[in-house]
Amino acid sequence: MTGFLIRRLLQALIVIVAVMAVMFTLTHLIPGGEARAVLGPKAQPVAIAAFNRENGLNLPLWEQFFRYLWNLAHFNLGFSHVLNQNVTSAIGTALPKTLVLVGLGTVFALVVAIPMGIYQVVRRNKPDDYVLTGFAFLLYAMPAFLLGTLLILWFAVYLQVFPSEAPQSQSVGGIISDPRAMVLPVLTLSAISIASFSRYMRSSMMETMTEDFVRTARAKGAAPRRVLYVHALRNAIIPIITLLGLSIGTIVSGAVITETVFNYPGMGLLVVNSALRDDIPTLLGATFVVTVATIVGNLLADILYAVVDPRIRYAKS
Amino acid sequence: MQNPDDLVRRATQGEGTEQIVVEPSSANDTAALPEDLTDDAIASPSGGDVISHGGLARRIFSVFVENKLAVAGVVVIVFFVLFCYVGPLLYHTNQTNASAALVSNVPFNASPGQGHPLGTDGSGFDILGRLMYGGQVSLLVGFAAAAVATTFGALYGAISGFFGTWIDAIMMRIVDAFLAIPVLFLAIVLAVVFRPSLVVFIFVIAFVSWLIPARLIRGQALSLRIREYVQAVKVMGGSRTRVILRHIIPNSIGTIIVNATFNVADAILLLAALGFIGLGVPAPQTDWGSMLSDGVQTATQGYWWEIYPAGLCIVLVVVAFNFIGDALRDALEVRLQQR
How high is the ipTM of this complex? Predict the structure, then answer.
């Protein structure tokens, strides 16, 4: 297990540096570069040269990259002239909010999807199973930006039960203290996860119900309820952990859309705004942080999987 | 976007399992025949119809057609292609010149009716015409991006899997690094860097969608390269290019086609998502996602006609492609061909 951990950590580290190199190169290809974005489209070449000199943008790309890595090691992601703020501090205020949104969305998705999957197994091939399957497909076909828009139209404009905008508070506490405004964003974000988790739960549970130990439990005379919830569920739920790890990228991408729809001041909105304003340091920093979070999330899911299921031992080789 | 069951299947399908096995349709029948049958009896069999499976293509087609959802999917796609490309020839609207709309007193945000079957948007553009105009962009980018991504990904994966060893290791680590970046973020960065015109957009979207096909085909290539017939080609002095282009790619074609279908749906969604956040095709061009984005700005006024039509178009087309992809996978799967 220790060997596996070290190997996976090293792998993750290499991928992170590779991603960093790719993103750094890409963002420094932006025509006109940061100077153009900060000084405006009509800036004099002299002013641009001065700006580049001042910010070390005239150095060779590889040297800029190593400087960036060096600063990164000191938790310094550079300075955004567009925001007139350190990128680290901008991310510092945005990241917790996205974590709250993604966390709530994922928990809600699990809370809905797992019972839904189990119920579909109990009632398999009956009308309610088909209805729920259809519902899952409907959610799946609905891109987040459309679902969010429809929810605003129905619940904020027509019924006026929920506000159309997410809480705008600066602090995480302020956001949590306005739960009504969080309902629509969380619903929007969790829809696609509900669809995929419930489908997966259904097939995983179905598979587990055919296992020998389930038959044995039944033969012993265990109550159907006990067989379902104690014997089958505990085994069927393990693959969901892997699925969770694999879904992080999708959920985070969904968060970008959700935050844009509801004007929720998290990482997604930060990325979108920096993209629209050519704010290169913020774009680079925020994308990087999100990617690292995704990689770490995947890693955690892998480890958790091995911890939860003692049958799984990662072999050397 | 793919069907829920595929999320895991696609992600874990590193070592590909699907491939077409071409079997002679009448094989092994003679072995089971009773001995007392004469040649005559064999030539004119009695007792029931002789079932002919026909060629491989026909069998695939017949399994595909059995799937009602897939046929409905094809109908939907054909409808939208006609709607977007033939529609504007029959239904003329101004979709490029906002000031012309201003001069000729076209109402803004007009509700459906009064010469505009689906109303007008915030710039005075007719929405029905705009759906056609934006749909051209969505469909074109979807098809073209999927074609580019699948072609490149398949070649990349085939080469990686065929060579194996350190070449494979390096090539696949590159794929891993790109896959680690959430799709939308990579697409956003690319959209900012390249400020895409319509054509460049195709490549931007292809750039984020070639990774999965590369992985899938690499898995196939790994298992195909040790097959006897591939070894035989090598022994006979066939070049590597020949092995890859004439043997590995054709034998993975099922996986490639199925993946390409899902890729079209994903590309349309990705373009719509980028359009929605304001990084879509440059004005006056538009796509369904950008239209929806405009609709959201006015959603609080309750202008539903700026939301439902574009949303419905996106959902229908994406679902149609997913149904087609599902059916193709069923049709191309080995065990079903034995029916």
Answer: 0.84
pLDDT tens-digit readout, B12-49: 443 333 444 444 444 444 444 455 555 555 555 555 66
In tens, the pLDDT along B40-80 reads 555 555 556 655 556 677 777 777 777 778 888 888 899 98
Q: What angle do CA A30, A35, A38 make, to 5 degrees?
A: 105
pLDDT tier at B147, thresholds 50, 70, 90: very high
Distance CA B152, CA B167 (A): 17
**Least reliable range by pLDDT among A66-75, A195-204, A218-227, B299-308:** B299-308
3-class SS of residue A265: coil
CB contact under 8 A, B296 and A19: no
Cα separation of the two ends of chain B = 30
For residue B149, the model assigns a pLDDT of 93
Residue in A26, A136, A257 closest to B189 by CB: A26
Give the C-alpha separation, B149 to B186, whole Å: 15
Please report the residues numbered 186 through 245 in chain A whose beta carbons come closer than 8 angstroms to any beta carbon of chain B.
195-196, 198-200, 203, 239, 242-243
Cβ contact B157:B249 at 8 Å: no
Per-residue confidence (pLDDT) for residue B26, from 0 to 100: 44
Per-residue pLDDT band at B145 (split at 50, 70, 90): very high
| b/e per residue B253-271 (b: at least 16 CB within 10 A) | ebbbbbbbbbbbbbbbbbb
Q: Which phi-psi region, left, alpha or beta, contains residue A282 (left: φ > 0; alpha: ψ -120 to 50)?
A: alpha
Average pLDDT, stretch B329-336? 62
The beta-carbon neighbor of B295 closest among A141, A149, A246 is A149
Is residue A22 within 8 angstroms of chain B, CB to CB?
yes
What φ, ψ does residue B116 adopt, rounded to 5°?
-125, 95
Q: Report helix, strand or coil for A261.
A: helix
Q: Which helix (H) or strand (E) holds A85?
A: strand A85-86
Q: Which of B5, B11, B279 sits opposite A199 (nearest CB)?
A: B5
Residue A34: per-residue pLDDT: 73
Cβ under 8 Å to B: A residues 134-193: 136-137, 140-146, 149-150, 152-153, 156-158, 164
Candidates B2, B183, B189: best to mutate against A (most CBs of A within 10 A) is: B189
Nearest CA in chain A to B322: A141
Determine the Cα–Cα distance for residues B247 and B241; give it in Å rounded to an integer.
Answer: 10
Give the pLDDT of residue B3.
46
Closest CA to A146 of B191, B109, B291: B291
Cβ–Cβ under 8 Å, residues A100 and A189: no
**Interchain CB contact of B273 with A (< 8 Å):** yes
d(CA B94, CA B73): 30
Kindly give the pairing relationship between strand A85-86 and strand A79-80: antiparallel
What pTM did the predictor assign? Answer: 0.80
pLDDT value for B151: 92
